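Quick one:
INPUT:
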C-alpha cells in the first residue's frame, strides 16, 4: 500500500511532516475555499471516478445491512433512519477511504487547520424507506462532547445517483453564520430548535444537493442540513467522512472514541489500485441508538 505518515508539528502525539500528497487536480482552489467560508458548504463534481468507488457501491447494494453494522435511529416522526458508523481506521476500504489524500487535504484547506478523523458513516436509504434526517447542525452534538470549537468539516461522497426522490442531502446556505443553535427533543429524536429554524428559512436559501456517484459535498459543522425519505425504487447511499481540527479533540470524559488519532494519509490512487483488504470486513463499527440525542 502506498502510504506516507503525515502529521502536524506542534501536536504532542504527532511530529510527522505535513507534505501535500493529493494530486494537484484534486486540491481545492482558493476560490473554492472562499466559497465554502461564505456559504458553509462546497460541491465538487467528479471528485472520485466511478471506477474508484465501484467496489464500495457494489458492496453496499449487495449487503445493505453492512455486515450487521447498520443502526436505525428514530426521526421525529418515529421512522427509522439507517446508518453504519466508524471512528477507528483499519485496512479495509472503510478504513482507507477517509485517509485518501484528496479527502484529508480538502478538509484541512476548508478548516484551515491540521485535522484528524472524527468518524465516518455510510448513510443508507433503502428504496421506499421512510426515515429522514431532521434539520440539525452537527456541532450541536459535538459541542456536547466537549469540542470547544466548530472546527469540523464533513466530506460527503455520493455512491448512488441522488436527487429529491431518493432523499438528497439538503443544506441551508450561510447557516453556519448562525453559530450553534439549541437542540430540542422530539420523542426519541432531536434536532434544531423549530422556532429558530423558521426564522432561518425566511432569510437563507435551502439547497437540494443532486449528486451523481463520485460527486462530493463538503459542509461545515454549523451548516444546517437534513434529508427526506426515499420515495423512489433506487437506493440512496452517501459516505460521510468527518474531520476535526487536531487541537479541538473533545474534553468531556468518556469520549475516547473521538479522541485524537494520528491520520495516516494515503496517495490518491489508493482506491484505483484497490490498495485495501476487503470492503467492510475488518472494520469495527460504532452502534448508535443507545443514547438519546446521539449523533455519533
Ligand atoms: O445522510 C444524510 O442524509 C444526512 C446524515 C446526517 O445528517 C448526519 O449523519 O448527521
Amino acid at each position: 500500500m502506498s502510504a506516507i505518515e503525515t502529521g502536524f508539528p506542534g501536536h504532542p502525539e504527532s511530529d510527522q511532516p505535513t507534505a501535500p500528497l493529493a494530486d494537484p487536480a484534486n486540491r481545492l482552489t482558493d476560490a473554492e475555499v472562499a466559497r465554502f467560508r461564505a456559504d458553509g458548504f462546497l460541491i465538487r463534481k467528479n471528485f472520485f471516478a466511478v471506477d474508484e468507488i465501484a467496489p464500495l457501491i457494489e458492496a453496499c447494494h449487495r449487503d445493505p445491512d453492512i455486515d450487521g453494522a447498520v443502526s436505525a435511529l428514530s426521526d421525529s416522526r418515529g421512522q427509522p433512519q439507517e446508518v453504519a458508523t466508524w471512528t477507528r481506521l483499519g485496512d479495509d476500504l472503510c478504513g482507507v477511504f477517509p485517509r485518501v489524500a484528496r479527502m484529508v487535504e480538502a478538509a484541512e484547506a476548508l478548516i484551515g487547520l491540521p485535522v484528524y478523523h472524527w468518524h465516518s458513516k455510510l448513510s443508507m436509504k433503502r428504496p421506499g424507506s421512510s426515515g429522514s434526517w431532521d434539520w440539525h447542525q452537527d456541532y450541536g452534538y459535538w459541542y456536547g462532547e466537549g469540542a470547544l470549537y466548530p472546527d469540523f468539516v464533513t466530506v460527503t461522497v455520493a455512491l448512488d445517483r441522488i436527487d429529491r426522490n431518493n432523499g438528497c442531502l439538503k443544506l441551508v446556505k450561510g447557516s453556519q453564520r448562525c453559530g450553534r443553535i439549541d437542540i430540542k427533543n422530539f420523542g426519541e429524536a432531536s434536532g434544531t430548535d423549530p422556532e429558530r429554524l423558521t426564522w432561518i428559512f425566511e432569510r437563507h436559501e435551502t439547497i437540494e444537493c443532486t449528486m451523481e456517484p463520485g460527486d462530493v459535498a463538503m459542509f461545515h459543522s454549523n451548516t444546517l442540513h437534513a434529508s427526506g425519505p426515499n420515495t423512489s425504487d433506487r437506493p440512496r447511499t452517501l459516505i460521510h467522512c468527518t474531520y476535526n481540527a487536531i487541537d479541538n479533540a473533545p474534553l468531556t470524559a468518556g469520549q475516547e472514541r473521538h479522541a485524537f488519532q494520528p491520520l495516516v494519509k494515503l496517495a490518491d490512487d489508493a482506491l484505483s489500485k484497490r490498495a485495501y483488504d476487503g470492503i467492510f470486513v475488518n472494520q469495527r463499527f460504532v452502534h448508535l441508538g443507545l443514547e438519546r440525542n446521539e449523533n455519533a
